[in-house]
Every structure is written in structure tokens, then in C-alpha cells.
Amino acid sequence: MCIRDRYPAARVRVQDRARDANTTWNAVQAALTKSIGTNLIVADGPDNWTTAMEGAAGIGIVNELLIQSHDLHAGIAVFPQVPSGQPAAFERLRARGGLLVSASMSSSGEVSNVHLANDRKDGGSGNVTLLSPWWPERPAVRIADETTGDAWVVAADNDGRVSFVSHPGERYALDASGGSMTL
What we know:
The chain has three helices and twelve strands; from the N terminus they run H-H-E-E-H-E-E-E-E-E-E-E-E-E-E. The strands form four sheets. It has a six-stranded antiparallel β-sheet with strand order 5-6-7-12-9-10, with no helix packed on it. Strands 1-2 form a two-stranded antiparallel sheet. Strands 3-4 form a two-stranded antiparallel sheet. The chain has 183 residues and is an alpha+beta fold.
């Protein structure tokens, strides 16, 4: 049985970054409302209430609203599908490439407290590409290596991507260039 047949919430496909976040959020809410009981037990089918929330793909859908890293060349996107006016925050969500990502967003849409940690199990360095949440208004990103204390500024490319090399065990704080940032 296909997961889309078994779990109604999995039928909602998180759309590409160009789709309106409010439309995606409304579709997720509608699917979850249909399939989740008041005790957070999920219907596996008609009159079959046996699966906990984790089994309904609900957690995966929420993670997709907060962070996407399907294509490492395209970049890690923070808050790609959070509805406008909705504050959000997450800590240590795993992104492809062995990275743990944390970030906050205010109800006005200002992104702050972006942190990336290299948690690769192979102990290797790796390229990191982030879709700058501050682009195009602020076209450069300040990156501070919280382990060594080094800091540098990287200009975003024409698509708003910022790239740098991360090293094993190191943690990086990112902010719009010129913004306040403490090490």
C-alpha cells in the first residue's frame, strides 16, 4: 500500500518554493483536520483510527514548511513555506549534507538566529549552500565560525545563494551583512 493511500496527510504535497505559503498551509490544515481525531490518533482509512501523529506524515510536512534541503546545489531554504505573518522557529533540524540547522522568524518575516552545524558522520568537510533569507534586500551574509571565532562576509549569487565550506564539528552563525551578531 502506498503511503499516500494509507495516510491522508501525506497526500498534501509541499509545493515548490514559488507557491504561496498560505495556500500550502491551508491544504495541510484541511488534510490533517479530516484525518486527525481530538486525541491526535490518525485514521488509516474509513473508521480505522489506529496510527499516531508521527505515522501520518504530519511531522514531515511541518518540517518541510520550516526547512527544505532536497537539492544541495539549489541550497538550504529556511522557512520556505511558513505563512506570512506567522512567527516560527526551529532548532537542530537535519538538512542534507550532515547539517543541523536552527533559525527563528518573527511575525514580520525577519529571519534571525540562523545557525548551521556540521554533524557529518564521516568527519568530512563539505560545501554548504544556503538560500539567503535576507536576499535581495541585503545581498551579503556574514558567517561566523563559532568554534574558531573567525568571521567573513559572502556575497549572494544572482539567485540569492550563499556558499561556504563547513568543517567537522564546527558551528556557524549567519546573519545579514551589517546586522548585529554576537560570537
